[in-house]
Amino acid sequence: MLRYLIILLAVLAPLNASAISPEEVMKSSQAAFLYQGKDFKARVTMRLLSSAGSERIRELTMLRKNFGAAGSEQKYFIYFYQPADVKDMTFMVYKRPGKESDRWLFVPALNMVRRIAARDKSSSFAGSDFTYEDVSGRNTEDDTHVITKEEKLGPSDCYVVKSAPKAGDMDYSYKVSWIDKKSFLPLKEEYYDKRDELYRIFTADEIKEIKGFPTVTKRTMKNLQSGHSTEAAFTRVDYNMGVDDSLFSERYLKNPPKKWIE
Amino acid sequence: MRPGKAINRILLISVMTAVLFSTAYADDLALHGFLQGNYSFDTANANPDKGRLKWSEERGQIRLDGVAEPFHLLIKTDVFYDHIEEKGDGELREGYFDLTRETWDLRVGRQTMTWGLGDLVFINDIFPKDYEAFFSGRPMEYLKKGVNGVKLGLYPGTVSLELVVIPFFEPNRLPDPNRFRMFDPMPGLTNRVKKEPSTSLKNTELALRAYRDLAGFEASLYFYRGFSRTPSMLPDNPSSPSKLTIFYPELSVYGLSLQRSALDGVLSLEAGHYDSREDRSGTDPFIPNSQTKFLIGYQRQMLEDFTAGLQYLGDYMHNYSEYKLNLPAGFPKDPELRQVASVRLTYLLLHQNLKLTWFSFYGITDRDYLLNPEIKYNFTDHVWGAAGANIFGGKKDATQFGSLDKNDNIYVQARYEF
């Protein structure tokens, strides 16, 4: 009994020291990483690099609008530039916390809008090493969080948070995140598989302040098991442009307005 | 020259003229396209033309996009060389102007459209199809034919509306009888005359779709007034015919569809009533009776990058007793309720560069089938290749896929896109 009490105190100690709970760290991180501004836009260029050295490019414009506070509903509008066989395709996601997202794909060659049945947790985003969940976020309440330590990562003071999914439906058994104490952006994430082996690493490689919002403009996800990695560069980043609700509709999915997708 | 073809030429010329002018004004012009080879080999060794090919062509496409807000211009033209016919030709796939305003938009010209929720099952999608393309193993986009018309979109807020006006009739394209061996109820009768609806105000087709969210469902209502795009055949004298007239009966369609997330996947429901306006009583054996069609579809992601889709289609014939009573002797009898099921499996591998697809129709009532496996690989970001097969069969010759029994083929497609 005493042993458990000591462990409990040991776990609680850093929490008292920093006066912030691990849940608050992860909520703030989610807000800083995925909910900044009322709306957001970026041209995303992803380089998919295989272990054999081949390279594929995915280029798209991503628009995001928040409907409520951090952690609540969001809508995404994505327009593909590259590769050639998906050029002019558009993709729309209604993200509702606690539920599977609704997704629509527009295929211009058939002038057809289709609902896509896909799960956030286990779907690769456009063939990259990022999953949908890496792109649009994971409900912080789906995991139990523990601050394991506080340390410097490069020049930045970080909380190191271990997050384990409450349900056993994920590919990984837990994730360790280095969260910058100032910006609350995740600077690094390590994913451990069911055998507790590190198999996937996320790094924030470049952070720029845009309209006052610190933004990860270069990021990498590397899969250590396959040797495959994806580097994503965000350019033309903008916030609070006044994206209208009506953009997230079948009408504009079929006929994306030039001013938003450029 | 067919009137449709003449219209396409005129459209092409006017569109090209428009391009010359618009290049001077457009804020932005983009040029894309592809080069493609597409070949389909008859594996049943039963081609009526004694050849071994269902399809054999090289094709190039140029796609020009011009934007000068609020206008948008798109031109998609193909040139191709057909090795079976041993001739080359051109084709305007699409060519239209868009005008986009805040609460409405207009699209004028040759355009393709897809309505409804079915996967290769079309209830409220009454736009023309090219079934020859589908059965020959051409890329999926060639299943859709363009229409020359006007589409008006209205978005007042509570509901969205699409109104399509098509002054020039465009039939479905059915497999070429030189390349496909099919059931023919009157094989000896070669004197056949095709009669398409003439272009007139009275014959102008109208299609309307209204859609909005409704209690968590994406709901659409549909209406169409025009003609069946599948031909009917009328003998001049049923007992000893000397001439067949191929024509397109008047048709109206009233339909609806509903879709939402359910059961960890996506559930689709669609129905349509086909009002056969020239044979409402069901007594004319040469015109289809009125029908009610309904579809239930469900798709779900089973594993990472692996999705399964199931469909059930029911097709109910009204006034069946009249149909039975009036059907000439020796003609194959359609069922009162025709039921069809389909399965689609899609597996994406190697960072979505490799796509494995299985699609099949199974006729529950007709006991016929279509199997279509396909493998597609993206060799680079610009080059892909695909190979697949179309396998048909059935218990009876007169059913849709049973009729195509002798037309199994394997196909290859290769495309360089720029």
Q: Could you please describe the fold and organization of this structure?
A:
The complex is a heterodimer of chains A (about 260) and B (about 425). Chain A has a single domain, classed as Clam (outer membrane lipoprotein receptor (LolB), chain A). In chain A, about 15% of the residues lie in helices and about 45% in strands. The mean pLDDT of chain A is about 90. Chain A has about 260 residues and is α+β, with helices and mostly antiparallel strands. Chain B is mainly β. Chain B has one domain: Porin. Chain B is built from three helices and 21 strands. Chains A and B meet through strand 6 of A and strand 1, strand 14 and strand 15 of B.
Q: What is the CATH class of chain B?
A: Mainly Beta
How many domain units of chain B?
1
User: What multimeric state do the chains show?
Assistant: heterodimer
Give the radius of gyration of chain B.
22 Å
> In percent, how much strand structure appears in the residues of chain A?
over 45%
| CATH H-level superfamily title of chain B | Porin
CATH architecture of chain A: Clam
Structural classification of chain A: alpha+beta
| CATH third-tier fold name of chain B | Porin
What is the mean predicted local confidence, pLDDT of chain A?
Answer: 91
* Order of strands across the main sheet of chain A: 6-5-4-3-2-1-13-12-11-10-9-8-7
Q: Number of helical runs of chain A?
A: 5
Overall pLDDT of chain B, averaged? 93
Broad shape of chain A: globular
Helix content of chain A: 10-25%
Rounded to the nearest angstrom, the distance between the terminal CA atoms of chain A is 62 Å
